[in-house]
Amino acid sequence: MKDFCVSTDFPGGNAVVLKTEGNTVYLDSDLRDTVGDWFYWAICVTGAEGKTITFDFGGKMRIGYYGPAVSYDLTHWKWLEKDSTFSKFTYTFSEKETKVYFAHNMIYSETMFREFAAQKQMPIQSLCKSRKGRDVPCVCFGKGHKSIVLTARHHACESTGNYVLEGVLDVLFDVPLNDIQVFCVPFVDYDGVTDGDQGKNRAPYDHNRDYTENKQAIYPETAKIREYIDTHSVFMAFDFHSPWHVGAENDLVCIIQKSIQKQNRYIKFGNLLDQNLTDDVLQHHQSDDIPPNGGTDNWNKVDTPTFAVYALRKPENELAFTLETCYFGHPDNPFTQERARGMGRCFAKAILEYIHTKS
Ligand SMILES: [Zn+2]
User: Fold this and answer.
1) Rounded distance, CA 163 to CA 339, Å?
2) Under a CB-based contact definition with an 8 Å cutoff, are residues 98 and 51 in contact?
3) Above 60 in pLDDT, residue 1?
4) What is the pLDDT of residues 249-267, one digit of tens each?
5) pTM for this structure?
């Protein structure tokens, strides 16, 4: 009898299959070079038509509030929403389900970005070669003396930020930007995104810790981003992330404020964002934003070298921050692909209004 197959052989694939006993698969996240624990995993199951299979992570927290994300094409994702705990889920494959993807979160793939860019007729350029020799995509549009820099996936597994980033680009690409160039790197840890790494807390340090002044970058992508910031007047810089797995601020959308001196600007932007949010998008509340040196156990240190801190240190920089976008959200504010893209479109409108108030 043909048996089912659990594979990670696709962009973003990640898991260690420990053993299979009957219709139970014991598996775990593949940490690779991540120091300490992390939770990302993504698998493809084939040949399981008509079977009921349990996927068991051995008691580890590897699944969110709504079960795993499920997809047939790696592009459209829904939550399983049943038969699931934080460490185990069970799925009954219909006779038609020849190939089903399951993941910790709703993956945003390079193919999705390329399809979005093609639809917008937004040219994709090459930023550089990655360590593994791959072309790293970037986009650049608009002309002017000032720049807005947009990045995502400094931490490879953090897909939620890409949906918000896509929404931001969707609006900014269509409006006339007065004297402003937009520079965007949607997958900073490009090898990690392709290979399905956690990326977070990568040894010796991850891409978002590769921003120490007067110390050469160790990753080709961050070297190029630093070079761009060093040679352009970066007026605004936004870096789109996902937080930790679940709980407290991890279930929200938060601006991570990185400058005590510029805190009034963060509050102004956060309020503009809230005013622009429509009911059908992922919600944000300015009061949830993380102040400098705030967050659970005061994790938001302002002196940690990050992309945002690197941009902020330039006198011409008006605003730079990380936006953390929850993996799952709350029942009254759940993460879905469209709600996150919609949130990004509202975020772009807040950028435009902020610029308008400055000119
Ligand atoms: Zn991150």
Assistant:
1) 9
2) no
3) no
4) 999 999 999 999 999 999 9
5) 0.98
pLDDT digits over 293-312, tens only?
A: 998 889 999 889 999 999 99
| DSSP conformational letter for 154 | S
Distance 325 CA to ligand 1 centre (A): 10
The one-letter amino acid code at 261 reads Q
Domain spans in the chain, listed from the N-terminal domain onward: 5-103, 110-358
CA of 309 to the centre of ligand 1 (A): 14
Question: How far lies 256's CA from each of 29, 78, 250, 324, in Å?
Answer: 27, 28, 12, 7
Q: Give residue 154 CA to ligand 1 midpoint distance, Å.
A: 6
* Spacing, Cα 200 to ligand 1 middle (Å): 7
Domain topology for 110-358: Aminopeptidase (3.40.630)
Tokens encoding 28: 């775990």
CA 150 / ligand 1 centre spacing (Å): 14
Q: Which two tokens stand for residue 204?
A: 């010796």
Tell me how long the chain is.
359
Average pLDDT, stretch 64-73? 98
The CATH number given to 5-103 is 2.60.40.3120
Q: For residue 266, how far is its CA from the centre of ligand 1 (angstroms)? A: 19
